[in-house]
Automatic annotation (TrEMBL):
Name of the protein in its database record: Aquaporin Z
Assigned keywords, A-Z: Membrane, Transmembrane, Transmembrane helix, Transport
Membrane-protein topology: Multi-pass membrane protein
InterPro entries tied to this protein: Aquaporin-like, Aquaporin_transptr, MIP, MIP_CS
Transmembrane segments: 12-32, 38-60, 87-109, 137-158, 170-189, 214-236
Pfam families hit by this protein: MIP
Organism: Compostimonas suwonensis
Intracellular or extracellular location(s): Membrane
PANTHER family with a match to the protein in the record: AQUAPORIN NIP1-1-RELATED, AQUAPORIN NIP2-1
Main location: membrane
Length: 242
């Protein structure tokens, strides 16, 4: 179990370090022009998360299963793919990894150009939000719906590509590309959570109103994951007995 928890810490650290680092340092990098921007934008951030999860799943998945996300852990437990008795340990490990990842990015930003850290924190430090804190000005209902839907879809994909009938060895690739796709839809709505540990880690540094709105990005990714987990058993797991 110790090795599994360390793997979850390391994988979640990689996820948050890659996602938040890309969003803070590279998403809107100054310089270039309209036809040749230097920043990676929404697409780059979405790809960063997809790549970090894919790499983490290949590297640490054989040890811990490569959850890196409390919603995934709970969804897998609901689907009967993971032991409920191990859930708390995994979630604590994921929170530690996420907070460490955000802390390293914060420390790097603190050593950036004058005003860089203040600007990153004023923008929420890649936190999730709705209404005036939404990148596109979307309200709380949109944030709730998008988090339930994208997290449920994400869990369905995870459960499908790790099914006993799935082709072995390709699950991390499918999972990574799925995350990239889902982020491209959700970033303009609420900065795309799917992962309560990631949301908690960034809101700690965003502070203020970002912390006030954090509950949405803890509760509703979990709701989506549980819906997917429980319904998957009913809809699809009977295939194992056919």
């Amino acid at each position: 179990m110790t090795a599994r928890l360390i793997a979850e810490i390391a994988g979640t650290f990689l996820l948050v370090f890659g996602l938040v680092g890309t969003a803070v340092f590279s998403a809107a990098f100054p310089g270039g022009d309209a036809g040749n921007p230097l920043g990676v934008g929404f697409l780059g951030v979405a790809l960063a998360l997809g790549l970090t999860v894919m790499i983490g799943a290949f590297a640490f998945g054989p040890i811990s299963g490569g959850h890196f996300n409390p919603a995934v852990t709970l969804g897998l437990a609901a689907a009967g793919r993971f032991s409920w008795r191990d859930v708390i340990g995994y979630i604590l490990a994921q929170l530690i990894g996420a907070i460490l990842g955000a802390t390293v990015i914060f420390a790097l930003a603190a050593n950036g150009p004058s005003g860089f850290l203040d600007s990153a924190v004023a923008g929420g430090f890649v936190s999730n939000g709705y209404d005036e804190l939404s990148p596109g000005g979307f309200g709380i209902v949109a944030a709730i719906v998008i988090e339930i839907v994208i997290t449920a879809l994400f869990l369905y994909v995870i459960l499908g590509v790790t099914h006993t009938r799935a082709t072995a060895g390709f699950a991390p690739i499918a999972i990574g590309f799925t995350l990239t796709l889902l982020l491209l839809v959700a970033i303009p709505v609420d900065n795309a959570s799917i992962n309560p540990a990631r949301s908690i880690a960034t809101a700690i540094f965003g502070g203020g109103d970002w912390l006030v709105q954090l509950w949405v990005f803890i509760v509703f990714p979990i709701v989506g994951a549980l819906i997917a987990g429980f319904s998957y058993r009913f809809l699809f797991d009977g295939l194992k007995r056919s």
